[in-house]
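User: Continuing from earlier, I have the next pair ready.

Assistant: Great, send them over.

User: Here they are, in order.

Assistant: Folding the first of the pair now:
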Amino acid sequence: MKREISRLLVGIVAAAISVAASADDKAAAKPAAAPAAKSSGPVATVNGVAIPQAQADLFMQEQMQRGAPDNAEVRNAIRDDLVRREVIAQEAKKKGVDKNPRFQTAMQLMQRSALVGAYLEDYVKTHPIPEADVKKAYDELVAKSAKKEYKARHILVEKEDDAKAIITKLKGGAKFADLAKDSKDTGSKDNGGDLGWNSPDAYVKPFGEALGKLQKGKYTTEPVKTDFGYHVILLDDSRDATPPAYDQVKANIQQRLQQQAVEKHIGELKKAAKIQ
């Protein structure tokens, strides 16, 4: 149960950050097209019960965050869905479903979740991450990132003796790509064991350390053991690593910092609360 609640909270935090970011983006961007005309009255009336336009607007906002356009077709679909929900809700009340203790508990949880989401959304909007903090985090990531990238191949087998046998065959003149056809790594075996360009940090530690010690065109003369099995690694080439441009990763860094700020704020609220 604690794990499910924690997962729900993470989802609420992420949603709040996403909503706030989406609102900021829309404020900064020019509208591509005029939105569909909206009525000031109820979106529909079902058996004398009015469905407020505000409900349709909220649904529309959620759909736009998923990439849907604000047009008559989408709004009509939302109206139909709201009408459908109202018809079912009225019938449920006739049957007394709203008096069911389980339903009332579920409603309390939903109301609490909506309240938490609204609060966190407001917190994100009123506590934006300064540009200087984002840039500082980017510079720190660049400083810690690997300075080299390696184009590697590998052959993965289950037993150490099998890896030693492969090394013996390589010493005898066998081609790495041919031997790679028997690799356990189905993602690279048909491509000569090619793993593409990556930094050593992209691999598990024993693999990355062994790769970093190889010279171009050389392979490991001893099997490299990881949790996946035993590897024979060949270094095709290396190059200086080029970190991604600031503008490419700025949004991701900003969201990560915002997530950390929200989690810190929640921790402070818990610390200040009297919990028994």
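And the other member of the pair:
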Amino acid sequence: MYAEERQQEILRRARAMGRVDVVTLAEEFAVTTETIRRDLTVLERSGVLRRVHGGAIPVERLGFEPALSTRDEVMIAEKERIAKAALAELPDDGSIIIDAGSTTGRLVHVLPTDRELTVIVNSPPLATALATRPNLSVIMLGGRMRRRTLATVDDWALQPLAQLHVDVAFMATNGCSATKGLTTPDPAEAAIKRAMINCAQRSVLLADHTKFTNTYLARFATMAEIDMVISDSGLDDQVAAELHAAGPDVVRA
């Protein structure tokens, strides 16, 4: 088993059982405890586990939300494939929302230059990246900016969304499941995401396969409220089937 495969299995077990133990993992994988500790360090640096005495706990169990900069450094190839697949869902012209997030951020950088679009964002970094594009009209939602996600929230962002109607909302999420829907740790950010979906004719979720094992505090949509899920080839067949049965089309890039 390659190190990357072992680390993914460690993460899977941590999420399934709530925590993992170094000694037990070393015995089960037939490697040294030092090897397991290195694996846990890699996973902690990726923002998905938190080291504790003798083992590790998945960050969602601690209510911990990795910073955007941390999330932007993992699953890079998968996120780029998802973003490119999302281009097929763009209107020929019209308006779109791009939610703040590491995967949706990849979409910003691959938007085509051959069509006129109005793009609404709630992320200053995304607005800056879009501002120099002559074919785009960019609307930046105001409000309080959350440092961890660099997303604007609260009334100054919610009020404009109540007056808007867009063709497509490209959404990000921290967690997703067929039964629990789309979830995020922060209720204020959940409110913005919910308003984005409500003002869109179609909603498309962009999420790599690791998001489908997590559930967080605040739900902002059920699967029935999402028209399409675009993930990567790592999304489990059974999970994909459960998502589709709950409502949306599922694309694995």
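Worth noting for the second one:
The chain is about 40% helix and 25% strand. The chain has a mean pLDDT of 91.
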